[in-house]
Amino acid sequence: MDSMLFTIAKGGGGFVTFLIFAIWIITIVGLWKIFQKAGKPGWGALIPIYNIILWLEIVRRPGWWIILILIVPLANIICFIIVIFDLAKSFGKGVGYGFGLLLLPLIFFPMLGFGEAEYTPIKREIVVQT
To answer: Coil, strand, or helix at residue 66?
Structure first.
């Protein structure tokens, strides 16, 4: 009995590592295509902080949000969710697709990148009070 559990545990590590790597590659490839569709360099998907900056440019959010996303606890989760839904909106998709990007990125990022959706920048109005 003990030898069977040891064998399962020993062999599972390589498979789990392979699975995580495959998920990472598929998501990166989808993000690469999304960046290219939005007129940004696709290789930016490979560089950790730079890809967040590119996301913020694509969804037309201010650059200082990078501080919220990288440093401020809880605010980073909220900002990330907003950016995900803005990404869906930038490609003409609705709230349901935003939930797909949020919950199943392995499927929805490649669908967005390789699908027929076209990038349309979100128009944001800047309100100046005098």
So the answer is: helix
